[in-house]
Amino acid sequence: MILCLDAGNSSLKLVTYADGSVLERQQWHYSADSSALQNWLQTIVAKVQVILGSCVANADTQAFIEAIVNEPIHWATSTSECSGVVNAYAQPENLGVDRWLTLLASHCALQQPTLTIDHGTALTFDWLTAAGQHLGGWITPGERLMRNSLNTATSRVRTGLENNAENATLAPAVNTQAGVSLGIYAALTGAVRQAINTSEQCFGTRRFAIVETGPTSLCQPLSYDADYYYKKDLVTLGLLLWGQSQDLLDLTDIEISRLFNWKE
Ligand SMILES: Nc1ncnc2c1ncn2[C@@H]1O[C@H](COP(=O)(O)OP(=O)(O)O)[C@@H](O)[C@H]1O
Ligand SMILES: CC(C)(COP(=O)(O)O)[C@@H](O)C(=O)NCCC(=O)O
Ligand SMILES: [K+]
């Protein structure tokens, strides 16, 4: 069994894999108690052969994760090239490793011009050619971060943190709560719309793929010609490819096709 850890800025996502399939998923928000996570780790640790990790959270969080896992973790890093993908950054290690891993996964599965979108603490966009050349990307605050900014930097906006813009019509709102929800929803989907327009320009075609990850989809309500894939575990899928490239794993062709044959 392989254990993959995706430590974002808000939560740790854990996925176990065997025979090219997901066995289990767990999530721990850093603000919550970690005892349920620790109990779960105890039940699987004897069965785990290798642990791979992606971390964009701070060093204290990473050290805490290492302490509770209490087994060696192979932490991935962003490099100039891996698994056929070439990093656009002049200083490749500065690209968030979660972004880098989503690119490895998208390229392995699709090998077509791809816009990758990851909505977590931040909302990130990355462009990738069919040949695996990363063109760069954008970073913008995610939903919760936008809400927190309004709540902390204004004196009269105090809205709950629940996302109630799911059925948004983007009509003008007549109270603060709805104004914030719809305004943020418009900002996020507006950024997605701009990214789709940019994709058409940088790829020179409307025939590209959008790969999205995160708790909910921002793309689905929009209209576009691109092929669309929503993948829950994009970062951990990328971790498997990174582990394979480092000879930490030996995935078979059958396992790779199970994990990355998205077109079926
Ligand atoms: N139950 C929850 N507790 C705390 N934060 C949550 C919860 N559900 C969603 N969020 C918020 O949703 C956003 C996305 O979360 P997540 O996918 O965990 O981000 P990341 O991948 O950056 O860690 C974050 O801003 C996070 O604070
Ligand atoms: C952009 C991010 C903050 C996204 O983090 P997340 O929302 O997944 O917690 C992270 O990928 C990061 O810290 N990147 C480093 C800066 C960069 O990618 O240019
Ligand atoms: K993100």
Automatic annotation (TrEMBL):
Tell me the domain of life: Bacteria
Q: Please give the organism.
A: Idiomarina tyrosinivorans
Main location class: cytoplasm
Could you describe the subunit structure of this protein? Homodimer.
Instruction: List residues binding substrate.
Output: 89, 96-99, 176
Any idea which positions bind ATP?
A: 6-13, 121
Protein name from the UniProt record: Type III pantothenate kinase
Q: Which gene encodes it?
A: coaX
Transmembrane stretches, start-end: none
- Organism classification, top ranks? Bacteria, Pseudomonadati, Pseudomonadota, Gammaproteobacteria, Alteromonadales
What compartments host this protein?
Answer: Cytoplasm
Give the protein family: Belongs to the type III pantothenate kinase family.
User: Biological process GO terms, please?
Assistant: coenzyme A biosynthetic process
